[in-house]
Amino acid sequence: MKITVVGRGRVGGGLARLWENAGHEATPLGRDGGDAAGADVVVVAVPGPAIADALAKVSGLDGQVTIDATNLYQERDTTFPSLSHQIKSIIGGPTAKSFSTNFAAAYDRIAQQRVTPSNLFAAEPDAKDIAEQLIRDAGYDPVYVGDLDPGARLLEDSSGLTRALVAQYGPFFYRYGRPGEL
Ligand SMILES: NC(=O)c1ccc[n+]([C@@H]2O[C@H](COP(=O)([O-])OP(=O)(O)OC[C@H]3O[C@@H](n4cnc5c(N)ncnc54)[C@H](OP(=O)(O)O)[C@@H]3O)[C@@H](O)[C@H]2O)c1
Question: pTM of the full predicted structure?
Answer without folding.
Answer: 0.98
